[in-house]
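Objective 1b. Sequence-to-structure analysis of Glycosyl transferase GT11 family.
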Amino acid sequence: MIGTEFIKGYGLGNQLFFYVTTRCVALEKGVDFGFINPGQVGNVAQSNMGMYFMDIDMGKEIPPEDKDKFKIFVEQDDRLYMGNSKHDMANGCYISGPDPKLFEVEDNTLIYGNLQDQSYFEKYRDQIKDWLKVKPEAESYEYTADDLCIINIRGGEYTDHPELYLDRRYFLNAIEHMKEINPNMRFMVVTEDEEAAKKVLPEYECHHFDMGKDYVTVKNARYLILSNSSFSIMPVLSSTELKYAIAPKYWARHNISDGFWSSEQNIYTFLHYQDKKGRIFTAEECRKELEEYKKTSRLYAKRNVKPGKFRYFCQIIRRKCIYGVFYLKKIIRSLERRTGIIKRI
């Protein structure tokens, strides 16, 4: 058996990656799959109703007390220690690519890690659509149209993290690209945090339905502008409707990266990536650029190395500057909304 453990605190996107990658490794090995604490799936910060909108096969339940009967595989974990935030200074910024040893694990192994690389599941994409099939009563094509683009904004804990939270400019640039595809394109925001989203794009219709309908609205959209959140990836992966999707280049460090990805695992062939200047890149272009970056970057050469005292002091200054600019932008955006420069619907 190949399995993993669903640990409290992870969002639905992470949980579905754990689920899918575990099943793919088990299928590749020709063995059963199973999970410790399968009831945790779907019980997240935004919802405690479980996977009410899917009939999802959880395989064999592994009792927590049987964990010591399994071998443990921990995915490769590379990090950059930078002055972007307290998290990146203390824990490092996760940048890992695929771990080639994942598919070398033996039977009776529990796998742990990020588990989000396309190479882990690409071979089984058709099966994944069946594994993550939405119940008929939960399915919805209400917002499936050739002239409608869904914007998925991630709020919540992201809103106080300048290294994570996407600026209004990212969405405006992506909107302009979508209008190049269709000048009459309409836009609607789907989010788990309406209050935050309405501050970013107050001029557009905004909804948080429930977790299930948010999921199927993203899954069945034909045009998408995504945030750097894993919530959207599995619905996009299993979509039969998608025509074009834009995601932030460098993913979780779109705002501050000098060329690294957080993480490399989040470069997917079914997405297009937009940089801070509004330029669009294919996944292949992003990978080629990243390989060149790895060869020349002094920062990347220091991966997994914690800073000394002087470098740490410099990182504190950098972090305070980043946060200062971030909150100044929030003040400016607030004033623009209050004075009518940014129109509300």
